[in-house]
Amino acid sequence: MSVTLPTTGQQTDQTTHRLPRQQDRSALTRALDTLAADLDGTLARPDDPTWDGARAAWNLAVDQSPTAVVIAETVRDVVSVVHVAREHGLRVAPQSTGHNAGPMGDLAGTILLKTSAMRDVQIDPVARVARAEGGAMWMDVTPAAAEHGLAALAGSAPDVGVSGYTLGGGMSWLARSHGLAANSVVAIEVVTADGVHRRVDESHEPELFWALRGGGGSFGIVTAIEFRLYPVTEVYAGVLFFPLDRAAEVLEAWRQWLPSVPDSVTSVGRVLRFPPLPDLPPHLSGQSFVVVEAACQLPADEAADLLAPLRALGPAMDTFDTIPMIGLSQLHMDPPGPVPGKGDGALLGSLSAEAIESFARVASAESSPLLSIELRHLGGALTPGRMTGGAVSGIDAEFALFAVGITPTPEAAEAVESAVVGVQHVMGPWTTGGVYLNFAERPKTGKALFGSYGTYARLRAVKAEYDASDVIRSNHPVRPATEADAGR
């Protein structure tokens, strides 16, 4: 194995593992044959008819070409894959749903290990804790918790994977009142690079537990995660739709409204272009809007009073109402399945009227190919120091930016990528230099993702302790610390 270590803290995957020599390949083939026969799940290789389906990510624009794909069904499967990979000089890339797979890069010499078949969910209503297997999605958790009058800090789309979302921090519609999803994790079951299945928490291997909560997927393969639930059954939530040509006016009104909202309100200001699809209602298909989305943990009359300044602008459509918690999975209007796309994010500090005007101008440009350009309001319980636990326990910014477009063709991909970079450039004067890990769809520095070189150095030390050979890889890899780093 050879390792190239960047000297700038760049969070890139520069590690190259030895590819099997010709005389080793027959041994690897035999090992994969044996593994396939022994698995509770399935194994696919490039010559198999199931190959393209097995290797696909949720983002269909990402072309994943690993040595093999294993769809695990049990912890035993995961352990077996790790042992085979280590024995034959391969790496293992764990993946639950395949969201944000773009930064993963070349998967040559890697077994793509999908946990998507491991979706069991258990709810303990007395302890108010859920246990979700490594491949579970929020659609598996949210309804099960709701049956007991409880809610999880779930992602904005029902098909987002629980483990990947949580390892990256996890920003829900309750984020300003309850913090990141990673702050609510009580235990994680993980197979580390030595093939050992561990259950880690505050008392058992606390450094690994710390790293897994917000540090990403470099430290092991999650087979189950346990997290707190909250007694929230309904919220006053919805969307105000306005014509796109009112973007500057509406977003500035939203900006001025934000200082009045309590931590029990999480909102988004967004420019949204609906593609011309027959599955969409006629009043949305092919239409573009500036919108304000919000979830308010307030009685309906208090929430209505709070929203009055925005409603006074005269929205074309107003969907706000008291809804059950499971209804929040549709609030952000994410695509209801895998699509090809490109996107990226940034963290922003305080925004002036000039900043909003610049954002509105670039976001509402008639020629823009972007599907969505959003600003998520942070603060509240997301403020660093308000919550404890994990490598990332808060976000040092006032807004999170994310821009994304659909890319069905290479030409579309080029246009979308250029437009995303354009949005980031225009908003550059107001960026903090950081990015929320789950919104980072291109390689980033450790400092950008984790807020400080100190946090990144601690993550590298944990990586070195549990995976010095860098067997486990993720979309935003943490390099293991080396002896050479000690003198820096």
State the gist of this model.
The protein has helices spanning 22-38, 51-55, 75-87, 138-146, 162-167, 175-178, 206-212, 247-257, 300-311, 353-363, 410-426, 446-450, 453-467, 483-486, and strands at 10-11, 42-44, 68-71, 91-95, 110-114, 121-124, 129-133, 185-191, 197-200, 221-228, 234-243, 265-273, 288-296, 317-318, 321-324, 341-348, 372-377, 399-406, 444-445. With 488 residues, it is α+β, with helices and mostly antiparallel strands. Helix 1 runs antiparallel to helix 3 (75-87).
Which geometry do the CA atoms define? globular
- Straight-line distance between termini: 23 Å
The CATH level-2 architecture of the largest domain is identified as 3-Layer(aba) Sandwich
Instruction: Tell me the total number of β-strands.
Output: 19
- Profile the largest sheet: 8 strands, antiparallel
Residue windows where pLDDT falls under 50 for at least 5 positions = 1-16
CATH class group of the largest domain: Alpha Beta
Q: DSSP strand (E) fraction?
A: 15-25%
CATH topology of the largest domain: Vanillyl-alcohol Oxidase, Chain A, domain 3
Residues in helix, %: 25-40%
Structural class: alpha+beta
Tally of structural domains: 3
Rg over alpha carbons: 22 Å
On the 0 to 100 scale, the average pLDDT is 93
Q: Helix count? A: 14
